[in-house]
Specification:
Layout lengths: L1 H19 L3 E5 H6 L3 E5 L4 E4 L6 E7 L5 E5 L23 E6 L16 E9 L2 E12 L7 E5 L28 H7 L9 H14 L8 H14 L4 H8 L3 H11 L2
Helix pairs in contact: 4-5, 4-7, 5-6
Length: about 260
């Protein structure tokens, strides 16, 4: 009986790991700094914000409306003092990961709450580049999570931007129905070994299509693909990125397919 229970527990752990595999969302500081990114906090799951890759430590954290979402950290945070000392440089702050989760709504005296449950979180960090500020919009959500962890990478880990490539385009069909050779990809994408989420795959796929003369820089399709990249980096789903950018679904899927190879 005990053996069967142990086996069932092992299978449960394996299945749980498989369900959450691929549930990590990765961004860089530049992504956060240039966009007010939305983060969903799924009921019963929560979300971790991981800054270990940046070498930064978290000093202070504020949530605009703490009545529905709370947080804990893997280390100490700076305590608010009443003197004029610089709290953000306090020696106590050494956290690198935050864990956010939904709670049963609490009504705080003399504290207003948002009408739709959404709020924002502000994170102050300190690292080799000095102090940084991260701000995210927090959205309570229910159902199965699309991601349960946000990993913030240094800007040096960002893929190369999509820029015109100074090579002679091959003679290719006018539709996106041909996959370029590996030699072509290597010649235009020297950083192709970097990790690929959907947004990064779309960046690489767009670079491939441009290098082959299939999508011209500044064209309507080019601009719509760029809009889709921005939406994906803001945490939108593939379906929403396609709908809001107006890019054709078959073009979107082909670009991601190329970018993932």
């Amino acid at each position: 009986m005990r053996k069967n229970l142990a086996l069932a527990a092992t299978l449960l752990l394996i299945n749980s790991h498989q369900v959450l595999a691929g549930s990590v969302r990765t961004v860089s500081y530049q992504d956060v700094d240039s966009n007010f990114l939305e983060l969903k906090i799924w009921k019963g799951y929560g979300l971790t914000i991981n800054l270990m890759s940046t070498g930064e430590v978290i000093k202070q954290v504020w949530i605009g409306d703490p009545s529905r979402i709370t947080f804990t950290s893997n280390g100490n945070l700076c305590q608010k003092s009443n003197d004029n000392s610089n709290d953000s440089n306090c020696s106590q702050g050494n956290a690198t990961v935050l864990f956010l989760r939904q709670i049963t709504p609490i009504k705080f005296a003399n504290l207003t709450s948002s009408s739709d449950g959404n709020t924002q979180i502000t994170i102050i960090t300190s690292g080799s580049d000095g102090q940084k500020q991260y701000q995210f919009k927090l959205i309570p959500a229910t159902g199965s999570p699309s991601y349960t962890s946000l990993v913030i990478k240094p800007d040096s880990a960002r893929p190369l931007p999509v820029v015109p490539v100074a090579i002679k385009p091959e003679v290719v069909p006018t539709t996106l129905d041909r996959i370029p050779t590996a030699a072509t990809i290597n010649s235009i994408l020297p950083g192709r070994a970097l990790p690929r989420n959907d947004a990064n795959a779309l960046v690489y796929g767009l670079a491939i299509a441009h290098s082959n003369g299939q999508i011209q820089e500044g064209s309507i399709t080019w601009k719509k693909a760029q809009d889709a990249i921005k939406l994906l980096r803001q945490g939108k789903s593939k379906e929403e990125a396609i709908s809001r950018s107006g890019v054709k679904e078959e073009v979107f899927n082909q670009l991601i397919q190329w970018g993932q190879k």
